[in-house]
Write a sequence for this structure.
């Protein structure tokens, strides 16, 4: 049995579903839209928590119909909440890039995958080398199907680059 730290948005209310679906000891860290602050102090607290609780995996989970993500793609009613304006801009940029590439008809899944892949890379970089092996992954919860699905690979989530 292994211990997992789940990073998720409190508006999704996924804690009970996660507790039923994932074996082992589960811990939760919540931030709006999964946009947690990755400053030095926060990362040090997460590192210490991972070591103290013998965490072997970290999983970012966002619901397909996450209120914060949908708001970022729509009217942006919550954009004045501290820290969300930059997050909203990142989501809108990713949406435009995915629409340009036309890789899929499922824009929201692609946007969420791209965003979670970016958060995974950021966390891996900021955590650095830990004494214990740590698997970091991302999943999207589909309420209609009541399933957790793996995000698209970071190879599919291309970034736009402009060469002059």
């Amino acid at each position: 049995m292994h211990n997992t730290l789940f990073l998720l948005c409190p508006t999704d209310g996924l804690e009970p579903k996660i507790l039923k679906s994932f074996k082992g000891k589960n811990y939760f860290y919540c931030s709006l839209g999964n946009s947690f602050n990755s400053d030095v102090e926060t990362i040090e607290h997460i590192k210490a928590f991972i070591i103290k609780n013998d965490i072997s995996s970290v999983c970012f989970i966002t619901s397909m119909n996450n209120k914060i993500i949908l708001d970022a793609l729509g009217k942006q009613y919550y954009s004045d909440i501290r820290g969300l304006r930059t997050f909203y801009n990142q989501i809108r940029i990713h949406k435009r890039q995915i629409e340009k590439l036309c890789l899929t008809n499922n824009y929201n899944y692609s946007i969420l995958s791209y965003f979670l892949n970016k958060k995974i890379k950021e966390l891996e970089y900021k955590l650095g080398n830990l004494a214990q092996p740590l698997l970091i992954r991302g999943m999207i919860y589909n309420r209609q199907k009541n399933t957790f699905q793996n995000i698209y690979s970071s190879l599919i989530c291309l970034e736009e680059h402009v060469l002059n």
